[in-house]
Amino acid sequence: MKKSILAAGVALALGAGVASTAFAQVKPEILVKQRQAVMTLQGKYLGPIGAMLKGAAPYNADVVALNATFLENLARMPWDGFQASTEGVKSAAKPEIYKNMAKFKADADALEAATVKLGAAARARDEAGVKAAFGGVAKACGSCHDDFRVKQ
Amino acid sequence: MKKSILAAGVALALGAGVASTAFAQVKPEILVKQRQAVMTLQGKYLGPIGAMLKGAAPYNADVVALNATFLENLARMPWDGFQASTEGVKSAAKPEIYKNMAKFKADADALEAATVKLGAAARARDEAGVKAAFGGVAKACGSCHDDFRVKQ
């Protein structure tokens, strides 16, 4: 009934990775800039939810729903920027990514799935569900960063 | 019937601007980085649609639908980063923004509306509609950049 447009976008995202990069004679420096831009925005929209969940800010279900919807979209954006051509560009991405693409892809999928849960709970104004799903998102971030990001 | 989750996000976005910045003891440098990240990603997802529409790449309706959905979300993300506190941070944003917030807000609204049309046409796999809506998006970008961005 409420088949969402966003869900359509999500379904596409899973299959469209190759197609998206088909145009891509994109310079490695641009690919890195684009994927870092996604990480920056993930931080922007995760931060306030985290602050609300730990009581540092009043819980605002509308803001959580909006941020979670943005995160659900953002979680699909970085991956086509991780191409072997970018290995020479300075960034926090470890070369292990390109040696273990299966694990990296699994981590990416885990984040996407976790943000789908977060988005659904947030739009349902289900605060307990948001709390649970947020933990899943944080875990997915951490798992990938542990293996594939240079310690900050 | 098909009330979309994305549309819900959009409706919220129009009202949530103030709430979003309520948490924001965000440093001006971070605000600039975040809004520039949005612009970077708008370029990422506009570029391939533009290339397809001018025949430089084969038209792929699935990629267009995905990119347009991302753009519909991204178009809502930059505005809360334009705060007077950022005037001292080096960027291409002109100080005119903060002297003419009504015009800037109207330009922001125009981009949001144009990307809603683009997203709808793209998800309907309506290539002619995409072409028309893309023109509207490009016009909205240009109008705002003409007045409020330092010439590149």
Could you characterize the architecture of this molecule?
The structure is a homodimer of 152-residue chains. Chain A is an all-alpha fold and 152 residues long. The first copy, chain A, has one domain: Cytochrome c/b562 (Four Helix Bundle (Hemerythrin (Met), subunit A), Up-down Bundle), CATH 1.20.120. Helix content of chain A is 70%, strand content 0%. Chain A is built from 6 helices and no strands. The A-B interface holds A 1-9, 12-13, 15-16, 19-20, 22-23, 33-34, 36-38, 40-41, 44, 47-48, 51, 57, 60, 62-63, 65-67, 69-70, 73-74, 76-77, 119, 123 and B 1-9, 12-13, 15-16, 19-20, 22-23, 33-34, 36-38, 40-41, 44, 47-48, 51, 57, 60, 62-63, 65-67, 69-70, 73-74, 76-77, 119, 123.
Summarize the structure.
Two copies of one chain form a homodimer. The first copy, chain A, has six helices and no strands.
Q: Roughly how many Å is the radius of gyration of chain A?
A: 16 Å
Oligomer: homodimer
Q: Roughly how much helix do the residues of chain A carry, as a percent range? A: over 70%
So how many helices of chain A? 6
Q: Helix-strand pattern of chain A, N to C?
A: HHHHHH
Largest binding interface between chains: A-B, 43 and 43 residues
CATH-assigned homologous superfamily of chain A:
Cytochrome c/b562
How would the global form of chain A be characterised? elongated
Question: Strand content of the residues of chain A, in percent?
Answer: under 5%
* Regions with little confidence, pLDDT below 50 for 5+ residues of chain A: 1-22
Q: What's the total number of strands of chain A? A: 0
CATH class of chain A: Mainly Alpha
Beginning-to-end CA distance, first to last residue of chain A: 45 Å
Largest sheet of chain A: none
